[in-house]
Model the fold of this input.
Amino acid sequence: MQKLIKAFIEHPQSVDETYWQHMLFAGSFSYKLTLAAMAAMVHAIFPFLFEKTASTILRELVNKTHNRS
Done:
């Protein structure tokens, strides 16, 4: 049981977050990646739509992950 609990808290602690803070951050990250993927798919079919949306979202996500404590 102790190893299971450790598995859930070890990584969040390594980035100075609680389990719940990390879940919120990762969930938000996943949501934004999904939006970027959807925008890219629409852009693939209709190149005049969402011309910079996916790259803007990805740049924002890279900046967020590189500026974490």
User: Anything to note?
Assistant: The chain has a mean pLDDT of 94. The CA atoms of residues 31 and 37 lie 10 Å apart.
